[in-house]
Amino acid sequence: MDNQSPAPLESPFPEASKSDTPEPPVFKPAEAPKKAKNKLIPLFVFLLLLALGTAGYFGWQNYQMKLEKKASDAQPMPSPVVKVDETADWKTHIKSGGLLFKYPPEFILEERDKGFYVIVLEKDKSIPQAGISIDTRLSSIYSSYEEAITKSSENLIDKVIEEITRGVKISGTIGPGFGEGSSITKAVLEYEEYEDSIVIVETLNKSPYIDVFDQFLSTFTDSWDPYDVVEVVEDSVKKRICPDEWIVNKMPGTVTPSPTPQEYLIINAKREEIINYDLSWIKSNCSVKEPQAVY
After folding, report:
1. Lowest mean pLDDT segment, chosen from 57-61, 143-147, 196-200, 234-238
2. pLDDT tens across 199-233, in order?
3. CB count, 10 Å around CB of 164?
4. Which tens digit of pLDDT belongs to each residue from 4-13?
5. Does 229 share its domain with 97?
6. Omega of the bond prior to 208 within 30 degrees of 0, cis?
């Protein structure tokens, strides 16, 4: 037997050539558009910066509020304003009928006529028109409060009238006549419940009287609590008027002492009791300096 291999059998189908066989399609994943991805980056950065800025702003505001609170806590609380009564140490005068006013302690009060007062410094009491005058005799002179204002201001030049509590204040220069050219200030006050319902207060515009004039006016009242009045100079304040005569009655009488005081003054042909008068002042300033005995 021959050792030769049998010849391969030939396929009945013709072998297709490699060039005639179609290759399968190759699918590649789609690439993300690069431009869209690049647009998101600035937006992200912007949002991040916005968040950081907002957080920083509110953090700064909170820090400032804490500083302000700390500073306010460190500051002392303001003390309450206490209104000081600058007339607390002034002397008090109560006229019969109920009108009360106060005046500075360094001034003296003189009743130079019934119902006509002057507050003045001791050194100025002999100077005409010095001090501040208070005239309570005018209810019988003026028929009304309005007339008192008119009459009180009619001889003033360049006058200024302003409303005040219980009346008006009038400033100006005195026209032709007595006191011409003098600058004065006066107040016309009305007290309906007071027996002398019209009061006129007046002063020359000279220191120290004009300096305390407004304060002086503020003390006038016809409504006051007696429990609030500590020191009072009553209406029996010693009068300083020069008498026509000073009499001591030494005429013999009964054994029983007379209830009528034996020493008295004669002023304008009328008997006046010495208890109401400043005898030391009379001795220093009047021609009648000593009592005259009458038997």
Report:
1. 234-238
2. 999 999 999 999 999 999 998 887 644 444 444 44
3. 13
4. 555 555 555 5
5. yes
6. yes
- Same domain for 227 and 262? no
Cα-Cα end-to-end distance for the chain: 214
Structure tokens at 179: 């006191």
Mean pLDDT of 81-99: 74
Residue 41 belongs to some domain of the structure: no
Question: 95 in a domain, yes or no?
Answer: yes
Domain residues for 154? 91-233
165 contact partners, CB below 8 Å, separation of at least 6 = 217, 218
**Whether residue 139 has pLDDT greater than 80:** no
Reply yes or no on whether the pLDDT at 284 is more than 90: no
| The total number of structural domains that make up the chain | 2
Residues 171 and 99 in one domain: yes
Tell whether the model's pLDDT for residue 37 goes beyond 60.
no
